[in-house]
């Protein structure tokens, strides 16, 4: 049996959609604008076709304890978000936090590395198998990779089972043992192939979260310098 114990990352997020004209870099370049600061991360992009003028936004920030309705009210969360980002340089961020309705806050929970991802015909993929910090920006990507890997494995193992020469009664009520074995093998191989990659990405996310938690001013400027250098060097290479 698999026991799942969710871990709190000490990070929460708020977000939603605001109805407003899209900033030119979002409308023209389909950009996702992401800003990192000492007290959190803020991102916005188009939430639907540019013509509908909907800006999707989210902000993630450190919260030592997972916020709950007993410990903090939505009003307090909204006031905190406005205080946190109300003086940021980007006028779009200031506009969003001053007008966006904030209805809830989501603590971020992740899974520890699991010993396997399924058995007896049941398989976990995506967040069910490896919910990771959104800092990685990889959760949905890894879910898609799982789906593709599992489809390829099932295709191959089942094809081998059907090609084995032994007649399989596909119409029978009882699940033929050969098919059952092929599915079990696929589930085991999925874990063997995918789990090292996924746990490496999850660990990178844990490290980033630790580093980004309420940065000191010195670390904040070191991060800006690093990001500036990174973009500068990559544009020099073009
Ligand atoms: C703030 C934030 C930012 C993120 N940014 C990125 C990013 O930039 N890039 C990226 O790749 N990933 C990102 N992610 C992660 C990404 O959203 C998830 O990893 C991804 O959605 C996981 O997909 P999933 O299909 O495994 O699970 P989910 O998207 O959670 O889908 C599970 C579905 O099952 C439904 N469900 C649950 N229980 C039942 C039930 N009993 N019966 C029927 N249905 C049920 C749920 O309603 C849900 O629709 C981010 C996550 C967060 C929170």
Provide an overview of this structure.
InterPro entries: FAD-bd, FAD-dep_Monooxygenase_BioMet, FAD/NAD-bd_sf. Belongs to the paxM FAD-dependent monooxygenase family. GO terms for molecular function: FAD binding; monooxygenase activity. Pfam families: FAD_binding_3. This is FAD-binding domain-containing protein. It is a single chain. With 238 residues, the chain is of the alpha+beta class. It folds into two domains: 7-110, D-Amino Acid Oxidase, Chain A, domain 2 (2-Layer Sandwich), CATH 3.30.9; 118-210, no CATH class. It has helices at residues 24-29, 74-85, 91-99, 127-130, 139-163, 177-212, 217-236; strands spanning 7-19, 33-37, 40-46, 54-62, 106-110, 118-119, 122-123. A five-stranded antiparallel sheet has the order 2-3-4-1-5. Helix 2 packs antiparallel against helix 3 and helix 5 runs antiparallel to helix 6 (177-212). The termini are far apart. The model has no long low-confidence stretch (mean pLDDT 85). The structure holds flavin-adenine dinucleotide. Flavin-adenine dinucleotide (FAD) is lined by residues 13, 58, 60, 126-128, 134, 137-141, 143.
């Amino acid at each position: 049996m698999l026991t799942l114990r969710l871990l709190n990352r000490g990070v929460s997020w708020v977000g939603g959609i605001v109805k407003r004209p899209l900033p030119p870099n979002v409308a023209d370049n389909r950009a996702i604008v992401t800003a990192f600061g000492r007290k959190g991360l803020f991102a916005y992009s188009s939430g639907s076709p540019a013509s509908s003028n909907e800006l999707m936004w989210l902000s993630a920030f450190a919260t030592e304890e997972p916020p709950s309705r007993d410990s903090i009210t939505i009003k307090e969360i909204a006031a905190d978000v406005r205080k946190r980002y109300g003086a940021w340089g980007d006028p779009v961020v200031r506009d969003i936090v001053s007008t966006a309705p904030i209805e809830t806050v989501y603590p971020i929970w992740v899974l520890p590395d699991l010993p396997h991802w399924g058995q007896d015909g049941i398989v976990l993929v995506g967040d069910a198998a490896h919910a990771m910090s959104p800092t990685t920006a990889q959760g949905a990507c890894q879910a898609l990779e799982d789906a593709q890997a599992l489809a390829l494995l099932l295709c191959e193992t089942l094809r081998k089972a059907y090609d084995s020469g032994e007649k399989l009664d596909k119409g029978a009520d009882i699940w033929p043992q050969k098919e059952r074995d092929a599915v079990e093998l696929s589930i085991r191989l999925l874990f063997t192939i995918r789990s090292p990659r996924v746990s490496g990405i999850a660990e990178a996310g844990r490290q980033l979260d630790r580093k980004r938690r309420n940065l000191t001013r010195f670390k904040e400027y070191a991060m800006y310098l690093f990001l500036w250098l990174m973009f500068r060097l990559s544009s020099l290479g073009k």
